[in-house]
Amino acid sequence: MTLIQIEKRVKVLEQIVQGLTATKRPVNRKWYRTQAGRFAGDPVFERIAKLGRAYRKSQRPKPDSKGS
Fold it and tell me: What are the CA-CA distances from residue 68 to residues 39, 60, 61, 62, 64 (Å)?
């Protein structure tokens, strides 16, 4: 790819990004309300959550086994 082609691509991308930043959509500050319960009863999600808990538990420091 030549330098001229790269410059053209960058210019197009800059215009696209400018268009994206120019459109101001209202931010839904309570987005979590629309997502809560989305995976309720989903066995795959339950498995993911279980594996995540097991991983986090495995990363905790082990208690000292010496009796003080």
Answer: 46, 21, 18, 16, 9
pLDDT by residue (tens digit) across 14-50?
Answer: 999 988 877 777 888 888 888 889 999 999 999 999 9
CA distance 24 to 33: 22
Which distant-in-sequence residues (6+ apart) come within 8 Å of 39 by Cβ?
45
DSSP sequence for the chain: --HHHHHHHHHHHHHHHHHHHH--PPP-TTHHHHHTTTTTT-HHHHHHHHHHHHHHHHHSPPPP-S--
- Residue 67 confidence (pLDDT) above 60: no
